[in-house]
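Notes taken during the Thursday session

The instructor put the following on the board and asked us to keep it in front of us for the whole hour. The protein is Helix-turn-helix transcriptional regulator. We were told not to look anything up and to reason only from what is written here. First, the residues (104 in total):
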Amino acid sequence: MTPGDRLLTVLSALDNPHRLRVLAALQAGGRNYVSRLAREIGISRPLLHLHLNKLEEAGLVTSHLELSQEGKALNYFEIAPFHLEVTPRSIVDAAASLTAKTEK
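Then, after some discussion, the predicted structure tokens were revealed:
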């Protein structure tokens, strides 16, 4: 993925209040499994899964499937290390590397 395509993917993933809340909750509380995270944020598990998938595709979170002591599969998510700095220069560089053509 080019730097320009990566920037668009990350910005698209951050363009939603639920996803910002997910990142904030994971930053504040550390890794968490889907059911507990959904309760903490106050959204349904299916909706949370959609947002987590978008964040994971952008490389902002990672997931790990683990078994509880009771044998139940729990999908844990945590923030992936990332740094985002958007400057006029970084936008020029990103635009030069875009592979996707967009139309109005």
